[in-house]
Structure formats: structure tokens, C-alpha cells
């Protein structure tokens, strides 16, 4: 196998809590729609939404317990090494 011609890009910095919260908002929206539709949809979809919301809450609690959640606002956070100050 030939060696790559250029180095791999650095990994992306992702706020996982925000991703989980966005997914939870989508599942909550789906649950509201299903509750409005009532008996016209199978109940398995309603329980799927409930389970997804519960698992997201559990995931956020575990992330908090492990110390992975950001506790300060982004403006007060320490800059990453090599970051350029914005001049404020």
C-alpha cells in the first residue's frame, strides 16, 4: 500500500453536548407531532421518541459526571494553543 502523499488533517473540535441537545430537540419535535397525530400512527414511534429523549438525557448526565461538559461560557474559555486572539 503506498504512503499518503500529504498528512492527515487535524481532528475537528466538536461541542458534543450541543450536538446531543440538537438531536434531543429533533426527537422532542417528532414526539409532539406524533402526539398531535394521535391514533393515526403506531405507538412504537411514540415510544421510540421517548426512549431517544431519555437516552440523550442519560448521555448528558454521564458527560457531566465525567467532566466533559463545558462549565464556562465560550467567551471566558481559555484559548486553544495556536489560536489567534480576536482583538477585543
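-> sequence recovered:
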Amino acid at each position: 500500500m503506498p504512503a499518503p502523499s500529504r498528512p492527515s488533517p487535524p481532528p475537528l473540535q466538536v461541542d458534543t453536548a450541543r450536538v446531543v441537545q440538537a438531536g434531543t430537540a429533533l426527537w422532542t419535535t417528532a414526539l409532539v407531532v406524533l402526539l398531535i397525530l394521535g391514533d393515526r400512527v403506531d405507538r412504537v414511534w411514540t415510544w421510540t421518541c421517548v426512549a431517544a429523549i431519555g437516552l440523550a438525557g442519560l448521555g448528558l448526565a454521564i458527560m457531566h459526571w465525567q467532566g466533559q461538559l463545558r462549565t464556562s461560557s465560550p467567551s471566558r474559555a481559555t484559548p486553544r494553543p495556536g489560536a489567534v486572539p480576536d482583538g477585543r
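The radius of gyration is 20 Å.
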